[in-house]
Amino acid sequence: MAESARTCPYPAFGAAVAPVGGTAAPDDSLGAVVEGLLAEFFADRRAATGESDTGFDTETVQRLQDFVLSGGKRIRPAFAWWGWRAAGGAAEGPAARSALRAASALELLHACALIQDDVMDASTLRRGRPAVHIAVEDEHRRRRWAGGARRYGESVAVLAGDLALAWADDMLDEALDGLGTRRLARVPWQRMRTELITGQFLDLRARASGDDSPDAALRVDRLKTAAYSAERPLHLGAAMAGGDDVLTAALRGYGAEVGTAFQLRDDLLGLYGDPAVTGKPVGDDIREGKPTLLWALGVERARARGDAESAAVLRACAGDTALGDDAVATLAALLEELGARAAVEERISRLVESGLDRIRDTPMPGAARRALESMAVQAATRTR
Fold this sequence. Notes:
By secondary structure, the chain is mainly alpha-helical. It has helices at 30-52, 54-69, 75-86, 94-121, 132-143, 149-176, 182-209, 214-240, 245-272, 275-278, 284-288, 293-304, 308-317, 325-337, 340-360, 366-381, and strands at 125-126, 129-130.
C-alpha cells in the first residue's frame, strides 16, 4: 500500500473542600486548601454576576464553577506552591495565603484551556462527564430552543472559557495585593498565557498541515502542556517569593522536563489507560488526529524499517472520527509492535531523571525538595 493513501482500512491528582483558616498547614493539605479558595472566589463572583443576569449566572457561571470544582489533579497550584516554598516563601500566614490564592488562579487558566480545547477537538467527555459544550448542547435540545444546538453549545463553552481566563487574571491580581512582588510575578504569568495559546495553535497547525515529525509533537508538548503545567507555575511561585535567578532557572529546567514527561504519560494513558480511571475514552487522540509523540514515533519507525503500509495506516487513521474500539485496539498494538510505546516510556524516564538533575544541587528547603522529587515520580507513573 502506498503511504500516500488516505483511506483508513479499519471500520468505523479531588479532596473535599476545607476551610482555608483550618489548622492543617498548606504543605499537608494543599488540594483541599486550593478547593476552598476557589469556592470562596466563585461565591464572591457569583454574588455580583447574579445581580447582573440570573440566566448568565445559572447557565454559564454555574457550569464553569462545577467544572472547576468537580475534579482535577491540581498539579499547577501544587507546582506554584512548591516553587514558592523552594524560594523561601512562608508555609503559613498572610503571605502564604496570598501565594496560595495566586496559585489557585492557575486552575481557572487551566479551565479555560480545557473547555476551549474540548471545543476545538470535538471531545465529548472530560473527567468522565460530558464536556461543557456537549452539556450545553444537550440542554438546548431538551428545551427545544431555536437555532442549532451544536453551535449554541460551542459558543457558550467559548464564553465560559473566556470568563475563566478573565477571572484567572482577577484572582491573581487580587492575590498579589498581599505581596510585594507583583512586578516579578506578572512576568511568568504573562509569558505562560502566550505560550499556552501558541501551543494550542501549533497543535491545530500540525494537524492541518500533516506535520508528523517527532520534533513538532515535542514542541506542542513543550508549549501547550509543560510550560503552563509545571515550568511557569514553578516560575510564578519562585517569583512571588523573590527567588534568585539561579534557583528560578533550576526550577524552570526541572519543570520543562517533568511537565513534558507528564504530557507523554497522558498520551500513553489516552491509548493504553483504563477509561474508568482516566475519565476519557481510549483512542480519542487518534480520532482527533492529535500530533502526539507516540503517533509520530510510530510513523517514523515504520518508515525507517521500510514498512510503508504501517506508516500509511497510521497516517490514514489519524483524525478518523469513525474509528471503532476494535480499530483503536489494533492501532495500539501496531504502535507497540513498532516500538513507539517503549520509546515514549524511555523518554519519560529520561526526562524525569534529567529534571531531577536540574534541582539536585540547588539549595532549597528539604520539604520543597522532597515534594518536587515526589511530583516528578508521580508525573512518570500516574494512572489518571
